[in-house]
Amino acid sequence: MMVVRENFDNKLEELQAKMKTMSDLAVSSIEKAFEAFKSKDVELALKVIDEDEAVDDLEIEINQFIIWLMAKEQPVARDLRRIIGVLKISSEIERIADFGVNIAKSTIRSGNINSLVDISNLEKMKDISITMLQKGLDSFITGDMKLAKEVGELDDEVDRFSDETYKSITSYLKEHPEETDQLVQLLLINRYLERTADHITNIAESAAYLIKGQMYDLNA
After folding, report:
1. What is the pTM of this model?
2. Tens digits of residue pLDDT in 93-107
3. Distance between CA atoms of 30 and 209, rounded to whole angstroms?
4. What is the DSSP letter of 177?
5. Within the chain, where are the H helices?
6. Separation CA 154–CA 203 (nearest Å)
7. Cβ proximity of 81 and 10 under 8 Å
8. Exposure pattern of 196-217 as b/e (b: 16+ CB <10 Å)?
9. Whose C-alpha in 119, 123, 136, 180 is 20 to 30 A from the C-alpha of 158?
């Protein structure tokens, strides 16, 4: 019986390792997309779009692994919660990588015009989101509820920066209507980063569900 359990635990670890790899790819997507945005590097933006396929492929691989594992092992209780958690989290990670692609596309559309809008809040949102993702995954893997709650608190910070950025861009837009096209892309990037943090909060909620066995709303 111990051998069967050990074998199952190994499969769970393998599943979580795939999820972690997927997360690393999503972080890379956001980091590279933001770097392309800051430096107006169209080549790098195009690379982000091309590399997204690897994330999509990994999500499919995880889904197939889970279907096989559930059919073979018929897990119950905490094991089942963990497997369902990986399924939900991999879906959230795929969306996060998509936001990296969206930022890359906005970078390509905004061209080489230098706006006077301060983008430092956008960079803070990006950095906080990456910290949130690391905490959310660690919470799920180690069962640390404190980390899940920290993700919810950091999401509030991202929301504050997002609100500030929205106000500053829209007020600048009134004075500089000639920059509308580029400023709309900045508003979109602001929105993509805010949504990235929301999806990461969902990951932390999956972690909280695994740990406590009940649903938590960390956005409240």
Report:
1. 0.93
2. 999 999 999 999 999
3. 27
4. G
5. 2-39, 42-73, 77-110, 120-142, 145-175, 180-212
6. 13
7. no
8. bbbbbbbbbbbbbbbbeeeebe
9. 180
